[in-house]
Amino acid sequence: MIRLHLCTISFRHHLVSLPELAGWAGAQGFDGIELWGVHARHLADQPSLDGQWLQARGLTVPMISDYLPLEGNEADAIRHTRDLCRLARHWRAPKVRTFAGQQASAGMSEDQRRKVTRRLGVLAQCVADEGLSLMLETHPGTLADTVDSTLALLADADHPALGINFDVLHVWESGADPCTALDQLAPWVRHCHFKNISHFQQLDVFAPANVYSPAGCREGMVPVLEGACDYRPLLTALANWRRRSGTDPLDVSLEWFGPDSYQVLATDLRRLRHRLGDARRSQALTACQ
C-alpha cells in the first residue's frame, strides 16, 4: 500500500495558511502533509493546530523534514534534534528527515566519514529515545549520494532508528537504476520523494540555493510522469509494497518546486493513483494465471 502526501515546501513562497492547505489536500484525496521544519517551527505559536486537529480532517503528518547539524558542537546538535522531536510529537509524525552531511562521499576522508557516522548514531539515538525514526535522504553532495555509500553508511551507523527517504530522482541522478537501488535499500526505505526533470542536464535547478530562492530558476521542472526519469517501472515495483517488503505501508511525498503548485500536485496525485491501481490489478491478474 502506498500513501501519497504533499509537501509544505512546495508552498514555501505562497501566502497560504495550513488550514487552507489542509482543506484543499483533503478535498483532493491526499493522505497527509509532509511538514517542512521551518513551517513546523513557525506553527508552534498556534497550539490548536496539531496532529489531532489534522487527523480530524482525515490527514496525517508522515514526516517533518529538517536539517540536523552533523558538524560543530554536539550539545547544540542534540538540542536541535530534541526540539525537532518535540515538534514531531506535536504533529504525531513518526519520522524526521535530515541529510547525511554536506559533502559528497567521493571527497570525504575516512576520518570525516567516521565523524559524520558517529554523529548520526548519536542523533539517531536521540530520535529513538522519543519513539521516532530518523530518515536519511538520498541526495547529491552528501554521504548518501550513491547506493554503495548509503549502504556503507547504514552498516557503519548500525542503528535501528535509521531509515532512508528514497528520493527517486536523486538516485537516478547518481547513475543508479531506481528499481535496482530500491531492492538494495528496501530494508531501510520508509519514505519516498517523487519529482522529475525534463533533461538530465537540468538537474542543477534542484540545488538548494536555487530551490529556496524566490527568484530561482524553475526551468525543466515537470510533473512526475512526464520527465526524463521513467517512474513507470518503479511504480510497478511499489504497487504491492507490503507484500514485497514485509513492512508497513510506504509513504510517498510529491515534492514539487515549480509554479502552479495546486494544479500540478492535484494532477500528479490523480495520475499516480491511477497508475498504481493499474499496476496492482496487473500483478493480481498475473498471480492468478
From TrEMBL:
Q: What are the Xylose isomerase-like TIM barrel domain coordinates in residue numbering? A: 27-259
Which named protein is this? 3-dehydroshikimate dehydratase
Task: State the source organism's domain of life.
Answer: Bacteria
Pfam families (alphabetical)? AP_endonuc_2
